[in-house]
Amino acid sequence: METSAIAKAFLKAQKGFGPALKTATNPHFRSKYVSLDGCIEAVIDSLHNNNLSLIQKTHDCEGGVKIETILLHESGETMSGGMLFVPANKHDAQGYGSALTYARRYSLLSFMGIAPEDDDGNAATKSIPKTGIKTPMPVTTSALRSKPSGDASAKKAISLSLPGKGELIFPDEYKFADGFISLIKKIDASSVEAKIKLEKADLLFKTNKVVLENRISKLKKTDIKQAMDNLFNKYRN
After folding, report:
1. Would you say the C-alpha torsion 105, 106, 111, 116 has a positive or negative sign?
2. Is residue 131 in a domain?
3. Whole-angstrom Cα distance, residue 169 to residue 171?
4. pLDDT in tens, 44-81
5. pLDDT of the residue at 203
6. Does position 33 have pLDDT exceeding 70, yes or no?
7. Has residue 129 been placed in a domain?
8. Helix 218-235 / helix 173-189 crossing angle, nearest 10 deg
9. What distance in Å separates the CA atoms of residue 153 and residue 215, rounded to the nearest whole number?
């Protein structure tokens, strides 16, 4: 299929894309994320200015939704971003609607080559992003292994409270952060229903909130919040 016209048009359109701002709020974690209308707003004017229309097509599938984002050029040429499947946490209208919105957002972001940005205008200058919806991905702690010199708090033992199960003691904040993220991963991988996953994670976070705020470095809090965000945004209604 000939794609020379649409390829040139898409390149021009991409140069005019705006930022996908995080203006919606995640009620579970009080963090901001980019909404579907925010994603569309970031690209639609530039696409239209370059004679491109945007189509998001659904495909039949079981257990969730499958979205294909397509660009259509005035020449008749088309370009597809491929198909994205998102499982529905609940097999009802709300569950499928939530999965559809999620799939449309991330299919569009991926195809257009844009990423969410904080709405304070300074996101591009930050080496560590603020909170907000992120595409679910593994959270690593390799960047947390080296202790900064002169960090006295790193030498203090920290206890992690497990609701209904007592406490775990960690020799320093680095082991604590690894342990906290590990627990979030275990909750994510458990077989319980989505609502229970969120309740367990939220209770774990609230029980240890003071420790997180007072004893964990900014870098570690960012990684922990990323792990929590991934879980909340993956299973939210």
Report:
1. positive
2. no
3. 7
4. 999 999 999 999 999 999 899 999 999 999 999 999 99
5. 84
6. yes
7. no
8. 10
9. 7
